[in-house]
Design a protein that fits this description.
Strand content of chain A: 25-35%
Radius of gyration of chain B: 13 Å
Strand order of the largest sheet of chain B: 2-1-3-4
CATH topology of chain B: Glutaredoxin
Distance between the termini of chain B: 42 Å
CATH architecture of chain A: 2-Layer Sandwich
Distance between the termini of chain A: 36 Å
Number of helices of chain B: 5
Number of strands of chain B: 4
Largest sheet of chain B: 4 strands, mixed
Structural class of chain B: alpha+beta
Strand content of chain B: 15-25%
Oligomer: heterodimer
Chain lengths: 77, 113
């Protein structure tokens, strides 16, 4: 099970068009990523809600196709 | 599938223990790096918690993801409320928010060194 970094970025962009996204393939295996997402849509939401928005954008792939995605979210300052 | 019986079981667990960690493996023998990381944070803070091994119970393993609308394990609950998974717990620990939140909710924790 693996997923391309470009595909992750596309899915997040589709749900959060203003997002600035940085993705790092931690092991070079297409299965362990660190992802940093900055979007104004996160404003007023707590961390759990922000991460839930990203998971929703990934349409169920998180925890199935995508094993590990270390996630950090922030609002633009 | 999260049916009523399962929801009640989870409600019961998170309601009757101050700090509950749904994890892969046990606090003494975590079987996943992410679960181990959360155990390490809680142990470091001297927080007493109940570990629930989802590997022993496939219905809980699936049900808890629906319960919290959160797709991954581990999941930390404090006083009945979902706090987050590994990334959030680690981030909150590093900023000191975790210790603060625990003490606000009346859970004993040592301040992070």
């Amino acid at each position: 099970m693996a997923m391309d970094a470009g595909e992750i970025e596309q899915l997040i962009k589709a749900a959060l068009p203003d997002a600035r996204i940085t993705i790092e393939d931690l092991r070079g295996d297409g299965d362990h990523y660190a992802c940093h997402v900055v979007s104004a849509a996160f404003s007023g939401k707590n961390r759990v809600q922000q991460h839930q928005m990203v998971y929703k954008a990934l349409q169920g792939r998180m925890g199935t196709e995508l094993h590990a995605l270390a996630l950090q979210t922030a609002t633009p300052d | 599938m999260l049916d009523d019986t399962l929801r009640q079981r989870i409600d019961q667990e998170v309601g009757s223990n101050d700090v509950v960690l749904f994890m892969k493996g046990t606090p003494v023998f975590p079987q996943c790096g992410f679960s181990a990381a959360v155990v390490q944070v809680l142990s470091h803070l001297g927080v007493k918690f109940k570990g629930i091994n989802v590997l022993e119970d496939p219905s809980i393993r699936d049900g808890i993801k629906e319960y919290s609308a959160w797709p991954t394990i581990p999941q930390l609950y404090v006083k009945g409320e979902f706090v987050g998974g590994c990334d959030i717990v680690r981030e909150m620990f590093e900023t000191g928010e975790l210790t603060e939140m625990l003490s606000t909710r009346g859970v004993d924790a040592r301040p992070a060194a």
